[in-house]
UniProtKB/TrEMBL annotation:
Keyword Lipid biosynthesis: no
Gene3D superfamilies: Di-copper center containing domain from catechol oxidase (1.10.1280.10)
Name the UniProt record assigns to this protein: Tyrosinase copper-binding domain-containing protein
InterPro entries (UniProt xref): Di-copper_centre_dom_sf, Tyrosinase/Hemocyanin, Tyrosinase_Cu-bd
Transmembrane segment boundaries: 20-41
Species of provenance: Knufia obscura
Pfam family, one: Tyrosinase
Keywords: Membrane, Metal-binding, Transmembrane, Transmembrane helix
Domain Tyrosinase copper-binding: 121-138, 282-293
Length: 358
């Protein structure tokens, strides 16, 4: 469009036109053509969602996060707020993919997690990568799924449910995310059975463990260790255990304790889609990781001066720039869905690209 208009102007130039008009118009055409070409190249690669879209209404006009909004526990949301969140999450499941052209935007996020999984787990980057991934998810909900800009991501504080996780109201069909898989269905990916109740009943998923494998989103609660069904081991989340995690003296110890049984345990026990690198297939993924991010935030807040730059431990082994060591300046990748985010950009949640608190 723009190029065409400039060309018309060019063709209207008569020999008597001012002599400097011609070079200026030519420059305009070149710049416009370059911009359009760059945009189309971006579309082709799928990197449509860029960081400039991550507008946050609570940032003041000078870009400072003056009044960070609070991320809240799922059950403190009003019924209306819960409905708004669920509706946005459901929209994510029908918006067409922009990354692979296969499936939905939801599948795109799942794909990113399984793609980067080996680099963003069991290493120092576990916490910042997932914090950044939550930011990517939240932004996509707001830019593509009508999630209101003044709302924040909810989290699930499973500590409140540790004595009976499987009966937590988070799995309610009416006010939660649906429950266990349907026992009359055959075992699917990850030994899960199709979830047939709640807002995500019969949700179709494209990926499983890096492969295209269309299936119904599945769960199969299992008490880890005894293999008893319809139960989830809550001892990992008992107050005394979580107290030890909270008192971890340094980043590496904290990250290891949090990622180990605390993070993994729930993946193993909900099973199905959740027990895999394609765990983001289960919408509970975002609330689980919200809680883990909250625990990191709390741990940092105990000594923010020191802990907002404390980042070390196990280097990532594969697919990572500078993979033999770790640095606050490491780039974390989100495939072609998003630009790179450096670790230092997410060490605080009230600065730079992030603006929230717990
Ligand atoms: Cu993960």
């Amino acid at each position: 469009m723009v190029v065409y208009r400039h060309r018309k102007q060019l063709s209207r130039l008569s020999p008597g036109s001012s002599p400097w008009l011609f070079p200026i118009t030519l420059t305009c055409i070149l710049i416009t053509t370059c911009l359009i070409t760059a945009y189309l190249a971006g579309l082709a690669k799928g990197s449509i969602i860029t960081r400039t879209q991550s507008h946050n209404p609570t940032l003041s006009h000078d870009g400072r996060c003056t009044n960070p909004p609070t991320r809240r526990e799922w059950r403190t949301l009003t019924t209306r707020e819960q409905r708004i969140y669920i509706n946005a999450a459901l929209r994510l499941q029908i918006k067409p993919s922009i990354l692979t052209g296969n499936g939905t935007l939801n599948d795109d996020l799942v794909h990113i997690h399984q793609l980067i999984g080996s680099a963003s787990h069991k290493s120092a980057s576990f916490l910042p990568w997932h914090r950044a991934f939550l930011h990517v998810y939240e932004t996509i909900l707001k830019t593509h799924c009508e999630y209101p800009r003044d709302m924040t991501l909810p989290y699930w504080n499973w500590e409140l449910d540790w004595s009976s996780l499987a009966t937590s109201s988070i799995f309610s069909d009416e006010t939660g995310f649906g429950g266990d898989g349907n026992e009359s269905y055959p075992l699917g990916p990850g030994d899960g059975r199709c979830v047939t109740t709640g807002p995500f009943a019969y949700s179709k998923r494209l990926w499983f463990e890096g492969k295209v494998k269309p299936h119904c989103m599945g769960r199969r609660f299992v008490y880890f260790g005894t293999n008893e069904g319809n139960a989830i081991n809550g001892s990992w989340y008992a107050p005394e255990v979580m107290g030890r995690v909270r008192r971890a003296p340094d980043y590496q110890t904290f990250r290891e304790m949090l990622e180990g049984t605390v993070h993994n345990g729930l993946h193993w026990s909900i099973r199905g889609d959740f027990a895999s690198f394609s765990a983001a297939n289960d919408p509970i993924f975002w609330l689980h990781h919200g809680q883990l991010d909250r625990l990191w935030w709390e741990w940092q807040a105990r000594d923010m001066e020191v802990r907002s730059t404390e980042y070390w431990g196990v280097p990532v082994e594969t697919d990572w720039p500078g993979a033999t060591t770790w640095s606050l300046e490491d780039d974390m990748t989100f495939g072609d869905l998003w630009g790179n985010i450096t670790v230092s950009e997410v060490m605080r949640t009230d600065e730079g690209i992030l603006c929230y608190r717990y």
